[in-house]
Amino acid sequence: MKAWRVLLVVVLLSLGGCERTFRDMYDQPRYKPLAKSSLWSDGRSARPPVAFTQAYSEGTLAGSSSGRIGVVTPTPTIGPLDAIRDSLRPEVGQAATEETAVKLPPITAALLARGRQRFDIFCSPCHSVAGDGDGMVARRGFPHPPSFHSDRLREASDQHFYAVITNGYGVMHSYATRVPPADRLAIVAYIRALQLSQHAPLVSLGDQDRMQLDAAAGAASKGGAR
Q1: pLDDT tens-place string over residues 54-97
Q2: 11 in a structural domain
Q3: Among the four 7, 85, 96, 147, which has the fewest Cβ within 10 Å?
Q4: pTM for this prediction
Q5: Average pLDDT over the chain, rounded to an integer
Q6: Closest Cα to residue 113, out of 200, 163, 196, 187?
Q7: CB atoms within 10 A of CB 189
Q8: What's the structural domain count of the chain?
Q9: End-to-end CA distance of the chain
């Protein structure tokens, strides 16, 4: 009788061990997103894709258990993007070419509004809403990206910005799978608008804008004199 009780205890303990084993299977140790890791030399747990990786699972059936379709569209050759700069900064005077399949939409308030929306979602966490590289992610330890208002990036081509969004640059990963080509164009247009907002020639301002600027400068000088 005593042996039977011992056997029962052993069986119950074994069953408890099985439950623990199953729990470990569906509740495995894991890294939190963007957590540090000493396993790799760069200290990051999030690993970049291997070379020549192509993103799949695009399209209307991507969320289903089968029928995963689509491949990310290859990066087109950029040419007409310079028209964005010509429209917002006519003093550059660089003509656009037609050597690409990208159809540049007219620079409109709607395009800039779309670019601002996409910029605020995907770019501002690092680049900040002002484009000065002091975003909330950078303030918390991520490397500060360069300011869009530096001389180097104000003179950079539109193709450069489009290519960086598409392919990534430095510690910035590619956004090709998250930002479609049309939205990349809108973001480039908005970046140019941001740059223009900080470096607009005084002669391009209207009389009312000049009066407001003079009044703000006068108020600032009085405040500094105190």
Answers
A1: 666 555 555 554 444 444 444 444 444 444 444 433 333 333 33
A2: no
A3: 7
A4: 0.53
A5: 74
A6: 187
A7: 28
A8: 1
A9: 97
Residue identified by tokens 């729990």 is 23
Instruction: Name the CA dihedral angle for 29, 32, 35, 38, rounded to a multiple of 10 degrees.
Output: 10
Tokens 């690993």: give the residue.
47
The residues near 92 (Cβ < 8 Å, ≥ 6 apart) are 85, 86
Specify which residues 191 forms β-bridges with.
none
pLDDT number for residue 100 = 37
In 3-state terms, what secondary structure has residue 93? coil
**What pLDDT was estimated at residue 56?**
60
Would you state the pLDDT for residue 83? Answer: 44
Strand, coil or helix: what is 36? strand
Would you say residue 187 lies in a domain? yes
Q: How far apart are CA 30 and CA 16, in angstroms?
A: 23
Q: Measure Cα distances from 222 to 27, 214, 225, 226 in Å.
A: 63, 12, 5, 7
Q: Containing domain of residue 184, as a range? A: 82-199
Backbone angles phi, psi at 21, to 5 degrees: -65, -45
- Using the predicted structure, report yes or no on whether residue 46 has a pLDDT greater than 70: yes
Residue 36 has phi, psi (to 5 degrees) of -75, 155
Cα–Cα distance list, 111 to 81, 105, 149, 186, 210 (Å): 13, 8, 21, 6, 27
Identify the residue whose tokens are 């950079």. Answer: 156
**Total Cβ atoms within 10 A of residue 162:** 21
Query: What is the domain-level CATH number for residue 182?
Result: 1.10.760.10
